[in-house]
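Record type: ASSEMBLY
Status: queued
Input:
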Amino acid sequence: DAGVIQSPRHEVTEMGQEVTLRCKPISGHNSLFWYRQTMMRGLELLIYFNNNVPIDDSGMPEDRFSAKMPNASFSTLKIQPSEPRDSAVYFCASSLQTGTEQYFGPGTRLTVT
Amino acid sequence: GQSLEQPSEVTAVEGAIVQINCTYQTSGFYGLSWYQQHDGGAPTFLSYNALDGLEETGRFSSFLSRSDSYGYLLLQELQMKDSASYFCAVTGLDSNYQLIWGAGTKLIIKP
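Status: finished
Output:
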């Protein structure tokens, strides 16, 4: 299996622009997680899906952030408009079931100038 | 609330043994996990303790004591490649089965 796939690996954008991060989970995994990691705040769970349904989005910072999972093999995290404080590494992870071992993608390093 | 505490940094010598502790406050959980993250990389799963006691996987072992709200990761025969951050995480009963993460321990290994 190719593991969790994320794109792009790096994104540099200007404040105010829309950013879309993409994730393909491991085939057969029912749960998908979006995390954000910064030096200051560590690893934060933004949202997670179970069977394509958002279960907990309490970690989403504000309305500028939105996430979708239209099918079992694809999810997006969108930031509109982006701000410099959104600069971080965004990880997508999947697991066979919620609560079991999570497999992380390589992450997207986002820089907002 | 639920929280996990682990030391921010631990230093050890190559070839030695090091223990990274994790204490937690939670109303209940299914198990304690450990993840490793190298600089610039993604977290990778190391171990999971559902029951009290010691789980061994090669040079790494993980321990859980629910009565003491405490767990640790033990790394033996340290190698330079073990230099990384180590995160403990619990699968909370009250958190829709999501992982509650500690802040991570940076392990520095000296030759």
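Annotation: Chain B has no helices and eleven strands.
Annotation: The interface with chain A takes residues 30, 33, 41-45, 48, 87, 91, 95-99, 101, 103-104 of chain B (CB under 8 Å).
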